[in-house]
Amino acid sequence: MRKVILAGALASASIIMTPAILHAQDEETPEQKDNMTEKLTAPVAEKRPHSFTHHGITIEDPYHWLKDQSYPKVDDEDVLSYLKEENAYFEANMAAQKPQVEKLFQEMKARIKEDDSTVPQKDGDWLYWSEFEEGAQYRKHYRKAAAGGDPELMLDENALAKDKEYFKLGALSISPDGRLMAYAYDDNGSERFEAHVRDLWAKQELDDVIPGLLSSIVWASDSKGFVYGLANENWRTDNARYHKIGDDPANDTELYKEKNEGYGVGVGLTAQEDWIVIATGDNVTSEVYLVPADDPTAKPKLVKTEKEGVQYSVDVRDGEIWVHTNDNHVNFRIAKAKLETPDQWETVIAGSDKHYLTDLSLFKDFYVVEGRIDGLDQIELRDYRNAGKIERIKFPEASYNAGLSNNPEYAVEKLRLAYESMITPDTVYDYNVASKSLETLKVQEIPSGYDASQYETERLTITARDGTQVPVSVVYKKGFKKDGSQPLHLYAYGAYGYAVPPGFSTTRFSLVDRGFAYAIAHIRGGDDLGYQWYLDGKLKKRTNTFNDFVDVGKGLIAQGFTSAGKLTASGGSAGGELMGAVTNQAPELFGAVVAHVPFVDVLNTMLDESLPLTPGEWPEWGNPIEDKEAFEFIRSYSPYDQVEAKAYPPMLYTGGLNDPRVTYWEPAKMVAKLRDMKTDDNLLLMKINMGAGHGGKSGRWNSLYETAEEFGFILWQMGMSEK
Questions:
Q1: Which of 121-135, 180-194, 279-293 is predicted with the least confidence, judged by mean pLDDT?
Q2: Is pLDDT at 524 greater than 80 in this prediction?
Q3: Would you call 398 exposed, middle or buried from its count of C-beta atoms within 10 A (0-12, 13-18, 19+)?
Q4: Which position among 130, 573, 638, 703 bears the catalytic label?
Q5: Model confidence over 532-569: pLDDT tens digits?
Q6: Contacts of 111 (CB under 8 A, 6+ apart)
Q7: Contact, 133 vs 115, CB < 8 A?
Q8: What's 46's DSSP letter?
Q9: Cβ distance 239 to 265 under 8 Å?
Q10: Distance between CA atoms of 665 and 136, rounded to whole angstroms?
Q11: Using one digit for the tens of pLDDT, what is the confidence trace for 334-357?
């Protein structure tokens, strides 16, 4: 529901310059002045009586009407009118910042290589890669024969996106014989993808079209069909189906149907490509089935019956099932079993309090275990025949983000890796298994220039109010003064066990080069320091996440990185919930806050089981319908429910009209209530992207422009605007 992470990208529509705004700095006529005054008057949402009662507690919600009752169709004229008024108010206020935003956009764009491409990777008889052409918003996907030959254009996203306000490519999968390409795309941001099939040899589209796909696409061994999952009417993938090429999709074979409304179904393929994996579960519980890739309609083989709170994933090699699971240790273990007795797991690597095991990948001559020690990424190669033989890949920096990249083949002599740090651009390596050496294939090029020696990065720990040591990654330009005089931007997510890595960002330097430090708070709710770190920020421990963020901010102030009022912050989705909670808790700390597609109406959303993803979210937040304690606890921190009559910092809220994860009315209701209750004159803006969803605008330049808008707002509110 809220797992898509935004890192500096806003969900917004493009700025429209009205004549009155264009001439705002010229001599205005009385009529123009009247228009300007009208446009700069904040919208006021009407209060309409609405209340509900749960567990004997009655809640008044006068902005309930902002949820269109015909959702996911939004056609209530009152709702649309209010959202348009907010967008116009945003545009009018940001108009004077247009030169600053444009300047930011151009410098961000100058850091991006326009005609860029991925490093080709071999998969069977072909090399595959994708490219951006200069000026293009979207990628082109290519291949060529590994034996040599001319490049072949498989798919042009730009052509598919032509004349569309939004476009996102989802699944893309090539049949084992190399002839057919199945792909799916979303053209309105609702995340309901439509699948198509293209004959790459004949260079023509087939008649096979499947609307409503919401899964990966996994081909059968004979290339005659593929396995996929459809979204049901509640936008939940509760099935796995097999489509035979040429057949009517309405008659596709249902391989699996999930009865638990809170579970989602996904599909995958094992390392030797002989088994199709059908996995079901929620964020804390798993159940996995296997079907033969050469007979996908065969009865699925259950690996192990689900047990609440136990997660597991599987791969298969030479008749053995390999398992990654947290069944007997919070930081997971690696086990294996025979195919004949798939639920009899024998430990290969025991769980460790120190070493958090995050992933397992099988190859012909070795297997790879990924994990973290003290929050730092580890990649280990292990020998099937000698469990004690461990080869850990070494990287050059003390703090970094590293992991396996695209490795589609089973028999390999080199591993493709991805690497970056807060000062080292994205780097693609091949690790030579025999020589144990790293070969640099590509380093992210920054056309406008970048000198890493001009920047410094630190990894700090700050003590939270309960004594917990919270890691913080910071980057700043050399010469940064730790006397409280300079601004600092603090970012975090803090949910679903998602760790925000200390990675590289070219956009970040538009703040850093203007005197900001940029910090990532590795707060509880993510799994930065292990799975327990995640557990300590969810359900009844959810407020640890918010407290950690506030305490990190105060700690950075105490260490002289910035001062109260010079601290800015942003977060998206569940991180947007974080922004709402911390501005309720400690508004005095912040000089500007941006909440991207924020999950701020937590109580109402968790009470509404008709919403697409709510049942699957109860293991994360609690079920307030059945549990009074959960109801009262969620209410105690839900940002919308905790808005008070007090001063708040300048804030920008964003949303997407078609967002199925965090619905548009969450930021709309939050802003409406803030406008009514806050006691300050600080600017409060909201921008609802009327043609996109959770990820904001599509296309690399549209998305980049929205980041420029975000930074423009922050700099403006910090008194650092430039003309």
A1: 180-194
A2: yes
A3: exposed
A4: 573
A5: 999 999 999 999 999 999 999 999 999 999 999 999 99
A6: 446, 447, 448, 450, 506, 507, 509
A7: yes
A8: P
A9: yes
A10: 33
A11: 999 999 999 999 999 999 999 999
CA proximity to 723, closest of 88, 101, 84, 31: 101
The reply to whether 694 belongs to the active site is yes
Nearest Cα residue to 566 out of 555, 579, 550, 553:
553
Distance in angstroms (rounded) separating the CA atoms of residues 576 and 564: 21
Stretch 585-594: mean pLDDT = 98
Give the per-residue pLDDT at 612: 76
pLDDT of amino acid 695? 60
| Cis status, amide bond into 72, omega within 30 of 0 | yes
What stretches of 538-646 adopt beta strand conformation (E)?
567-572, 590-596
Contact in structure between 616 and 231 (CB atoms under 8 Å): no
Counted residue by residue, the chain has a size of: 723
**Using CA atoms, how far apart are residues 667 and 602, in angstroms rounded to an integer?**
11
Residue from 64, 489, 596, 694 carrying the catalytic annotation: 694
Residue 691 has pLDDT above 80, yes or no: no
Give the containing element (helix H, strand E) for 30: helix 30-39
- For residues 72 and 350, the model is more confident at 350
CA 265 – CA 287 distance, rounded (Å): 10
Structure tokens given for 292? 């033969």
Q: Is 111 helix (H, G, I), strand (E, B) or coil?
A: coil
Q: What is the mean pLDDT of the chain?
A: 91
Residue 29 confidence (pLDDT) above 50: no
Quote the Cα angle for 396-399-400, to 5°. Answer: 75
For the beta carbon of residue 484, count every other beta carbon within 10 angstroms. 16
Residue type, position 359, single letter:
D
SS3 assignment, position 584: helix
Angle between helices 665-677 and 77-94 (to 10 degrees): 70
Q: Give me the percent of the chain exceeding a pLDDT of 70.
A: 93
Judge whether residue 233 has pLDDT over 90: no
Question: Computed from CA positions of residues 217, 218, 223, 225, in that sequence, does the dihedral angle turn out positive or negative?
Answer: negative
CA nearest neighbour of 194 among 212, 217, 173:
212
**The residue to which tokens 């807060």 are assigned:** 422
Q: Is 573 a catalytic residue?
A: yes
Structural domains of the chain ordered from first start: 45-103+565-723 (3.40.50.1820), 451-479+489-563 (3.40.50.1820)
Please give the residue that has the higher pLDDT: either 480 or 3.
Answer: 480
Provide, rounded to the nearest whole percent, the portion of the chain with pLDDT above 90: 84
Q: What are phi and psi of 125, to 5 degrees?
A: -90, 5
pLDDT the model gives residue 636: 98
φ/ψ of 590, rounded to 5, equals -105, 140
Structure tokens at 532: 């327990």
- In this structure, are residues 384 and 367 in contact, taking their beta carbons and an 8 Å threshold? yes
Residues 721 and 21 sit within 8 Å (Cβ to Cβ):
no
Catalytic residue among 282, 315, 641, 659: 659
Residue 286 is among the residues annotated as catalytic for this protein:
no
pLDDT at 386: 85
Give which of 596, 608, 621 is closest to 713, Cα–Cα. 596
3-class SS of residue 454: helix
d(CA 357, CA 21): 55
| 510/104 Cα distance (integer angstroms) | 7
Helix axes 543-558, 574-585, angle to 10 degrees: 60
Judge whether 478 and 454 are in contact, CB under 8 Å: yes
Averaged pLDDT, 223-230: 97
CB 380 within 8 A of CB 399: no
